[in-house]
Amino acid sequence: MALAWLSRQPWYNKAAVKQPVIVYIEGNIGVGKSTLLKKLEEKGYLVVQEPVSQWTNYHGINFLELYSQDMQKWAFTFQSMVLSTLWQTQLEAIQQENPVIIAERSLHSVVKMFAKTQKDAGFMNEEQYVLLDNTAKTMVSQYKRKEYFIYLRGSATTAYQRIQQRARDEENTLSKDYIQQLHLILDNWMENEPGLHAVVDATGSPETVQQQVIEALGQLPS
């Protein structure tokens, strides 16, 4: 049923898409990306979620836990690992040749959101940041797809409350100040991102957010 609904959308038909695209769902931690992506997947979209299971068990090492406990020590190592695993996950999906792929965050977010926050905090030096940035650009160049961004914009306060409510072990050391800093840096990046396709108010109900994202997807240039 979901695939039938999706196949009726004219913009999703391979013949109607002049160039395959990848649409990134960007947003702060706790903004509701996972909930949205599950709903989109149920409708038949090819959804690529962050490979969190690899971050918590990368060759037997829980890098996410190490990073959350000591960001200053593990910032560069963790973001390097995230960049590698996220790229591999997205590249596998791209090889399926679907005209539209929906991805939870982009490789750009690893650099422009998370690494930028850590560089500003003094947890990463300029040379490490430049290395991550150049690596991400090289990786993305292999996608050979037009990139679009949909920004789920919520409030840092609400995001922090959701993080507290879901009580994930690896997130219990995240401070409200850190979430606020991510919010500010993400806002600034999205304001200047040429590939920004839509900004969706993430403070609404999950159903409202889902509908707005689907409408935004329907307005992708063909």
Automatic annotation (TrEMBL):
Domain of life: Eukaryota
One annotated Gene Ontology cellular component of this protein: cytoplasm
Deoxynucleoside kinase domain sequence ranges: 24-192
UniProt-listed InterPro entries: Deoxyribonucleoside_kinase (IPR050566), DNK_dom (IPR031314), P-loop_NTPase (IPR027417)
An example Gene Ontology molecular-function term: deoxynucleoside kinase activity
Family matches, as PANTHER family: DEOXYADENOSINE KINASE (PTHR10513:SF35), DEOXYNUCLEOSIDE KINASE (PTHR10513)
Protein name as annotated: Deoxynucleoside kinase-like
